[in-house]
Amino acid sequence: MKTQYFIAILFATSLYWMYLLYEPFLMVITIAALLAISTANIQKYLEEKLHSKLVASLVSSLLLAILFFAPLGYFLTNLTIKLNHLDPDTLQKVELYIKNFILNPPAYLDFLKPYLPDTMKDININTLTSFALNIAGKIGSISAGFVKNAFLVIVFYFFAHYNGASIVTFLKRIVQMSVEDSSLLVRELSAVMNVVFYSIIATAMFEGALFGIAISFMGYNGLLFGIMYGFASLIPVIGGVIMWLPFMIYEFSIGDTNSAIFIALYSIIVISIIADTFIKPLIIKAINQKVLKGDTSKMNELIIFFAIIAGLTTFGFWGMILGPAITAFFLTILQLFEARSRECEVENTL
């Protein structure tokens, strides 16, 4: 057996076992690597200021940890306090409102009247309390999983920054690609991930601020619910609904019809339609032009916008990072194919 064949067999075998070993961590490693690519300019700036790659990597990881954990910790702390002080009178008002709504539905829902009485028997304060605690438990479970994954992402993120340059150099040596092709691939992926990272933060903060300001005028904790809306806005289609719908139902239940209608219309028109549909692509475009200023190969902001939505739909929370990365990688490979085809055409004409 030739030596190269034996080495290839050993490599394939080791690759298989490496996959089995690290398969539970592949997602977080990928996310950490993409986040490191997204914040490479911040890392470079910190290295220049701090004159130490180790310290700069630690500071970058700390900033990312604060970005992940601070809003989530504030949300979970307040959620626990609210649940421990759950007012039975509030739940009773909600129960009465729902029952009255079912008994006397609007005219456009008259066709549901034959089916509504069956739902009455399942609605009482005990079921509402159980439902609220069940939702809170699910939120706690999801948050615990998110905290675990976020911690692992931050750990791998630190190593990606600290050892990233040597890893990239090594990969360039072993991958059978020209320097121009590998540079194009790295540049395109880095550029798109920069835009994605900053645009996600900017749009989530923007939409969260819009909701938080409106809800604060109604007497609620604007900071808490603004943070919650910022996270919820990352969920396609229903993200905003799961925030403003409970407020609308509660305001109706306590008889404040004007506030209920206001929060529903404000959330739908101002946030969901104007901010999310029209302003969000403009934010991505502005960041695209700012980050990639002078770069003729920048990706269209609408492609990035839909890649984020597709990623969230397919992969969940971390899809907002994976979606654009997969799209950028695919489009860059197409560019490489196009370049090779042109070279072949030129050679054939000669």
Task: Write the SSE topology.
Blueprint (H helix, E strand, L loop, with lengths): L2 H20 L3 H13 L1 H11 L2 H32 L3 H16 L13 H4 L4 H50 L4 H38 L5 H11 L8 H13 L3 H35 L9 H15 L3 H31 L1
Kindly, what is the distance between the CA atoms of the first and last residues, rounded to a whole number of angstroms?
42 Å
Model regions low in confidence, pLDDT < 50 over at least 5 residues:
none
Strand content: under 5%
**SSE run:** HHHHHHHHHHHHH
Query: How is the quaternary structure best described?
Result: single chain
Number of strands: 0
CA-atom Rg in angstroms: 26 Å
Mean pLDDT value: 76
Number of structurally distinct domains? 1
The rough form would be described as elongated
Helix content: over 70%
Could you say which structural class the secondary elements and strand pairing correspond to?
mainly alpha
Largest sheet: none
**Contiguous helical run count:** 13
What does this structure look like?
With 350 residues, the chain is an all-alpha fold. The chain has one domain (29-91, 123-243, 277-349). The protein has 13 helices and no strands. The chain has helices spanning 3-22, 26-38, 40-50, 53-84, 88-103, 117-120, 125-174, 179-216, 222-232, 241-253, 257-291, 301-315, 319-349. Helix 2 (26-38) crosses helix 7 (125-174), helix 10 (241-253) packs antiparallel against helix 11 and helix 12 (301-315) packs across helix 13 (319-349). The model has no long low-confidence stretch (mean pLDDT 76).
